[in-house]
Amino acid sequence: MHRFYFITDRKKFKKPFLDTVKEVLEKGVRLIQIREKDLPDDELYKLAESVLEISKGYDAKIFINSRVDIAYMLGLDGVHLTSRSVPVSVVKRKFPDLIVGKSCHSVEDVLNAEDEGADYVFISPIFEVEGKGKPIGIEGLKKVLEVAKIPVYALGGINNSNVEEILKTGVYGVAGIRLFL
């Protein structure tokens, strides 16, 4: 898995969706999570199909937020589960070839995700992000890293001015939307 993980949110894009994805791929990002929660099933399926097509030749891994069905039907690399999704263990048992990640907000969440069989986790928010709860900060991130046995991606409020500080903690990688735009 690569260190930089891009999460889509077309409402925050200044350019058309596929142009933005292509631009991120051109910058060298090789992990993309399709996270368009408000799209109807048919549109989400078509969008994921387009991302898969545009990413050919980049050796990128494509994930989708919570939609195991779409990941399976399109042969995506994985699925990212929210803190309120179905258990990781169920997905891993039924779809052993999918890479499964989980969003976590505490050390306890990370340990639970590991026990369930997650391949990686997001820990968030690191810094202040409107509507995303109390940030854990650098010290909270370090506490997670002390116990985590699987790759941990830091998420939330990470930008060009603090990304180096995050990477110096020893975190596996960083995830974000605006960070890569």
TrEMBL record:
Q: What is its EC number?
A: 2.5.1.3
Query: SUPFAM superfamilies attached here?
Result: Thiamin phosphate synthase
Query: What is a single cellular component term in the Gene Ontology annotation?
Result: cytoplasm
Q: Which PANTHER family match?
A: THIAMINE-PHOSPHATE PYROPHOSPHORYLASE (PTHR20857), THIAMINE-PHOSPHATE SYNTHASE (PTHR20857:SF15)
- Classification via Pfam families: TMP-TENI
The source's superkingdom equals Bacteria
What terms describe the molecular function in GO for this protein? thiamine-phosphate diphosphorylase activity
Protein name, as recorded: Thiamine-phosphate pyrophosphorylase (TMPpyrophosphorylase) (TMP-PPase) (Thiamine-phosphate synthase)
Cite a single GO BP annotation: thiamine biosynthetic process
Q: What organism, scientifically named, is this protein from?
A: Sulfurihydrogenibium azorense (strain DSM 15241 / OCM 825 / Az-Fu1)
Q: Does the keyword Oxidoreductase apply?
A: no
Pathway per the UniProt entry? Cofactor biosynthesis; thiamine diphosphate biosynthesis
Q: Print the organism lineage.
A: Bacteria, Pseudomonadati, Aquificota, Aquificia, Aquificales
